[in-house]
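Notebook p. 47: complex prediction with flavin-adenine dinucleotide.
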Amino acid sequence: MSEMVTAQVNEEPRIGVFICHCGLNIAGTLDITQLVEYAKTLPNVVYVKENRYTCADPGQNEIKKGILEHKLNRAIVAACSPRMHEPTFRKCVQEVGLNPFLFEMANIREFCSWCHPSKKADATEKAKEIIKMAVAKSRLLKPLDTFEVSVTNKAMVIGGGIAGINSALDMANMGFKVYLVERDESIGGRMAQLDKTFPTLDCSICIEGPKMVEVARNKNIEIISFAEVTNVDGYVGNFKVRIHKKPRYVIQKNCTGCGECMDACPVEYPNKWEMNLGTRKAVSVPFPQAVPLVYTIDMDHCIECYKCVDACGARQAIDMEQKPEDIEVEVGTITVATGYDMYDPSDDPRYGYGKFANVITALEAERLINAAGPTGGHVIRASDGKTPRRVAFIQCVGSRDVNKYEYCTGFCCMYAIKEAILIKEHEPETEIYILYIDMRTPFKGFEDFYRRARDLGITFIRGKPSEIVEDSNSQNLTIRTVDADLNAPIEVDADLVILCNAAIPSAGTDDLSRILHVTRGSDGFFLESHAKLKPIDTPVDGIFLAGACQGPKDIPYSVCQGSGTAGRAATILSKQKWEIEPIVAIVDPAKCRNTKAKCGVCVTACPYTAPSAPEGKPAVINPAKCHGCGTCVAECPSDAITQMHFTDEQILSQVRNALEVNPEKKIIGFLCNWCSYAGADLAGTSRFEYPPTIRAIRVMCSGRVDRDFVLEALRLGAGMVLVGACHLPNDCHYISGNWKMKTRIEALQGMLQKLGMSPERLRIAYVSAAEGLIFSNLIKEMTRQMEDLGQDKIKAENTKLRPVITNMLARKGLIPSAQAQAPVPTDSPATK
Ligand code: FAD
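Predicted complex, structure tokens below:
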């Protein structure tokens, strides 16, 4: 134990409460004067101070001054979500000698002022209770020492597009070893497929190719191509990553990339990299600039004539018996840069894609325009090989569509303009139309580029097509639409139609999200930790996001994020040791059942193999392996395990303080930090208003929600209880905590219903970090249900439940047995 912890462990709490106005974000709704006066009445609170912006320098100085001048040994900031500024304030209090785990936050912004703006008086009452709950927990806080773990100073980048390439190069150039895992045969990603890039019209492969070569030549980078990550274990600084390498049937170290095998190969099949517009040989590379320049045999097309073996000769690079290989590497950080895929519009009959030969996608057009592409740079029609005289682009195919993908793909406006300009430059006589909903040209040089297209005579029509029809003789096309500016139906005739289809999460994103425990947003792309302050971090320490895997992005933005993640990863990789929060579980050996009988429930509950329970001995938990979910704590049959910083006493004290007044009008919500708490935060940030009925308690994982917490809430008369978790089956940040909670709480639901409780009063809800609206609607619905049940019924049910519950809790020593008979308080002078 450090000196600081030893010194602060047994002191009588002296709590300081710092209430933030956050400009008008909080003070515009809540009555701060009332909050200050109220906080002064709370037990052990010796100092209360309001600040305009507590996170700003003067605000933080006020906290430090308060701690020193008033000898505070606990500090509470009533402000924004702890998910936002808890680390800031922990650092602040630490600077004046207070243990950071003696700091607590009361979330009165996202959980109060922002979500109840039209109910100012009720919101102020709710904020008082949020502060009261924070004080209750603060009184029971214990100083804790952080753990230090050693850091493996190596990095992994998953995905070798332009974002991953930049991330890998920057880290390698800082001196770190980098494993770059690429699923395809070559790195390069989509950028390698493009012809020129907007708005400067640089040749795409000419600017990306040298970077790809630099990756191959960099001694610090090991490219693991034609491979995928199948498992990740461990934690920040110490990830163990399992990678599955597919067989190329060519021995990489023997292959010189000469291409003689390909020349000898008699088999050709459509080349996916060329959008199936060109062909490749059964032994080949997808494109000439591939990196690594190693050939691959596609066994689905190989006829085993062995001509390649003969052509390869003494180099002996062909190995028809090659097997898949699984390898494991250890790294300190992981950057995900897995990019995007394109929506296949053949499922939308309006566009005729896949049915009409002369309707193609924009990526297909890129390959046609490209001089190194299958047609040598000539844009021709598939139906007759002729150069089209009239070309029409259709924007937002699949994107900005509530029935498909609601988001804007972002780069389509610009690439449509680019392809139009390129076609016009090749064939100046071509008539070009771009049918759009809104033109979006917000970044450097984009508006000039748009103007250039208009100056070239490209026609922009605001209108979304209702259908495309084909003339069966000429195979020319007619687009039927409404010109929104003329407010009149029009028809546009075209020889070729190019669809600007939505970018969607790349295939396998859901698997990778499960493997990495990194959640995805409602759009299916990976979700960042905080949209503004941590846009390239994930909630998992040491895992970062770069490029279009987090949402559609153009090349410059992807490059920035690639470099950004390198910088973020370097903050970890550059250290020998990394501090881990001590929010781990510890076993009280005196209480552990395993000493008397074979138990091991904690061992089964933990997905990280942190506990061990040797026969006849108390279980022990390895803190370096413990991820701090608290599932074992809730599962332990003899209550022998404690989760530091989220102890039973601390959580129960929050429950009790929340329910001192009008309990039957309240919802006690246990919300898991990573999904449902974050979803509730988002409801606030998005200003989705809902009734001020919920009193939320943060737990790291829903797996931590002990039956006793629910029982105590009901004993005290709670109207409703909500357990908020990450979505099943795979979204739990701690792998299986939500499943354990589900089993436990569903069993409790059954028992309570048998005892006469209405089923809707104990609810499990799965809410992701991206589902602010869903959270808000959930609280509206639960409040409505609570009102429909009516206070009399709730009170009557509670009266029936109370003796049974009280006995259960008293038996466990969670409440004094005398309370079994004592009436439950329904009022508190403090909040009146
Ligand atoms: P990607 O390029 O998609 O690369 C991701 C890489 O990750 C790929 O190599 C992929 O194989 C790999 N991968 C995926 N999953 C896994 C996995 N599980 N394991 C390992 N590897 C994996 N932007 C511009 O700025 N200018 C332009 O002119 C332009 N034109 C465009 C034209 C079209 C038609 C389209 C569709 C897009 C255009 N863009 C343009 C956008 C550009 O393509 C993206 O900005 C860029 O490709 C994003 O790079 P990235 O590295 O994030 O993703």
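Notes: Confidence is low (pLDDT under 50) at residues 825-832. The pocket of flavin-adenine dinucleotide is lined by residues 158-164, 181-184, 189-191, 194, 197-198, 228, 337-340, 362-363, 366, 411, 415, 418, 506, 508, 512, 547-548, 553-556, 558 (CB under 6 Å).
Next step: compare against the earlier run before touching the bench.
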